[in-house]
Amino acid sequence: MRFVLALLFIVGLSYSSMAQTITIGPRVGVNFATQVITGDDDEYAEWWNDEVKASPGLQAGLVYNIMVSDMFSVQPELLYTRKGYKFTTDDETVIGKYSYLDLPILAKLSLGTGDLKGFVTAGPTLGYWMSGKDTYESDDLNGDVDIDFDNDNDGLEKQFEFGASIGVGMGYNTGAGELNLDVRYGTGFTSVYDSDDKAKLRNSGISISIAYLFGL
Known about the structure:
Layout: H1 2-21, E1 22-38, H2 43-51, E2 55-67, E3 72-88, E4 92-111, E5 116-138, E6 142-146, E7 160-173, E8 178-188, E9 200-215
Antiparallel strand pairs: 1-2, 1-9, 2-3, 3-4, 4-5, 5-6, 5-7, 7-8, 8-9
């Protein structure tokens, strides 16, 4: 009986220790998204990359941080991210608004001591293009055109995306939890559309967000 009680006590301590190393919480912010053409040096690609602008959109989701040591942790996240672009010519503006479900799996290196610490994050991201639309503003056409993934005549969209994220930030220990401010650059390695040539249209963007993490 004493052995069983001692074992339960050790398991309880182990669980308590583990719980202190795992934090979870919400993240919300803005993603300044754009799309760039890579792998092609023709005049259209150069013109597009020079003229395309960022389009701001919501980023929100859940953060799960697993502390490995005082300095290093692994941080998977599940995020809704609005991606897209804004392109303006003399007589037309087109804004792409695309909803993605992103799964970044980040390594996090914390720097400093005390309640205020800096950190660096980096790691791969997996994305799924859920829905979207293109908004046209011109003299001839005004309105939205939804992305139709099931349309065989227009079914060039690639819904799955593989990319990477790198960022910096600050974390402040509030006592009950930790408030994080993140600034990240994210890019897709895969093309948004199928293509027979080497050219790729890739998502990229800079996001600014806050997260509040608390122990389980």
